[in-house]
Write a structure and sequence with these properties.
This is DUF1876 domain-containing protein. By secondary structure, the chain is of the alpha+beta class. It is built from one helix and three strands; from the N terminus they run βββα. 29% of the residues lie in helices and 26% in strands.
Length: 103
Protein backbone atom coordinates (compact mmCIF):
# COMPACT_ATOMS: atom_id res chain seq x y z
CA UNK A 1 0.00 0.00 0.00
CA UNK A 2 1.37 3.37 -0.93
CA UNK A 3 0.56 6.74 0.51
CA UNK A 4 0.29 9.96 -1.43
CA UNK A 5 3.38 12.09 -1.24
CA UNK A 6 2.85 15.08 1.03
CA UNK A 7 4.95 18.20 1.15
CA UNK A 8 4.12 18.63 4.85
CA UNK A 9 6.33 16.93 7.41
CA UNK A 10 4.48 14.62 9.81
CA UNK A 11 3.17 16.33 12.94
CA UNK A 12 4.84 15.18 16.13
CA UNK A 13 3.32 15.90 19.51
CA UNK A 14 4.45 15.03 22.97
CA UNK A 15 2.01 14.48 25.80
CA UNK A 16 3.32 14.09 29.33
CA UNK A 17 1.76 11.48 31.57
CA UNK A 18 2.72 11.22 35.23
CA UNK A 19 1.62 8.23 37.28
CA UNK A 20 1.72 8.52 41.07
CA UNK A 21 1.30 5.45 43.28
CA UNK A 22 0.59 5.64 46.98
CA UNK A 23 0.38 2.60 49.22
CA UNK A 24 -1.24 2.54 52.62
CA UNK A 25 -1.67 -1.17 53.32
CA UNK A 26 -4.09 -2.67 52.36
CA UNK A 27 -4.92 0.12 49.87
CA UNK A 28 -2.99 1.28 46.83
CA UNK A 29 -4.03 4.46 45.03
CA UNK A 30 -2.98 5.51 41.54
CA UNK A 31 -3.28 9.07 40.24
CA UNK A 32 -2.57 9.92 36.61
CA UNK A 33 -2.04 13.43 35.28
CA UNK A 34 -1.96 13.81 31.49
CA UNK A 35 -0.73 17.14 30.12
CA UNK A 36 -1.39 17.52 26.40
CA UNK A 37 0.00 21.02 26.24
CA UNK A 38 -3.52 22.36 25.66
CA UNK A 39 -5.37 20.49 28.41
CA UNK A 40 -4.70 18.60 31.61
CA UNK A 41 -6.71 15.49 32.46
CA UNK A 42 -6.56 13.57 35.72
CA UNK A 43 -7.78 10.12 36.72
CA UNK A 44 -7.69 8.12 39.93
CA UNK A 45 -8.17 4.47 40.87
CA UNK A 46 -7.61 2.16 43.80
CA UNK A 47 -6.80 -1.43 44.60
CA UNK A 48 -7.44 -3.07 47.96
CA UNK A 49 -5.70 -6.20 49.16
CA UNK A 50 -7.86 -8.85 50.75
CA UNK A 51 -6.87 -9.45 54.38
CA UNK A 52 -6.48 -13.13 53.45
CA UNK A 53 -3.90 -12.47 50.72
CA UNK A 54 -0.16 -12.02 51.30
CA UNK A 55 1.18 -8.47 51.04
CA UNK A 56 2.71 -8.00 47.57
CA UNK A 57 2.98 -4.31 46.73
CA UNK A 58 3.62 -4.91 43.01
CA UNK A 59 0.19 -6.46 42.51
CA UNK A 60 -1.61 -3.50 44.10
CA UNK A 61 0.49 -1.11 42.02
CA UNK A 62 -0.37 -2.96 38.81
CA UNK A 63 -4.08 -3.13 39.57
CA UNK A 64 -4.41 0.50 40.64
CA UNK A 65 -2.29 1.77 37.73
CA UNK A 66 -4.17 -0.37 35.19
CA UNK A 67 -7.52 0.86 36.47
CA UNK A 68 -6.36 4.48 36.40
CA UNK A 69 -5.11 4.05 32.82
CA UNK A 70 -8.49 2.62 31.76
CA UNK A 71 -10.22 5.57 33.45
CA UNK A 72 -7.89 7.94 31.58
CA UNK A 73 -8.79 6.22 28.32
CA UNK A 74 -12.49 6.78 29.02
CA UNK A 75 -11.79 10.47 29.78
CA UNK A 76 -9.94 10.87 26.48
CA UNK A 77 -12.76 9.19 24.53
CA UNK A 78 -15.33 11.46 26.20
CA UNK A 79 -13.21 14.52 25.40
CA UNK A 80 -12.95 13.46 21.76
CA UNK A 81 -16.71 12.85 21.57
CA UNK A 82 -17.36 16.32 23.01
CA UNK A 83 -14.94 17.90 20.55
CA UNK A 84 -16.56 16.08 17.62
CA UNK A 85 -20.01 17.17 18.76
CA UNK A 86 -18.81 20.78 19.11
CA UNK A 87 -17.71 20.90 15.47
CA UNK A 88 -20.92 19.27 14.26
CA UNK A 89 -19.52 15.88 13.32
CA UNK A 90 -22.13 13.21 12.72
CA UNK A 91 -22.69 10.92 15.66
CA UNK A 92 -21.43 7.39 15.47
CA UNK A 93 -22.62 4.47 17.51
CA UNK A 94 -20.62 4.18 20.72
CA UNK A 95 -19.29 0.66 21.22
CA UNK A 96 -20.20 -1.13 24.42
CA UNK A 97 -17.49 -0.81 27.07
CA UNK A 98 -15.20 -3.78 27.61
CA UNK A 99 -15.23 -3.20 31.36
CA UNK A 100 -17.58 -1.59 33.87
CA UNK A 101 -16.95 2.01 34.81
CA UNK A 102 -14.80 2.38 37.95
CA UNK A 103 -15.15 6.16 38.18
Amino acid sequence: MTRPVSSRPPAVKEWRLNLYLSEHDPDTTARIVLDTGDNVLESHAEARRSPYDPAMADIGDELAAGRALMAMGRLLLRAAAGDMKAIGATETETPAPLWPSQE
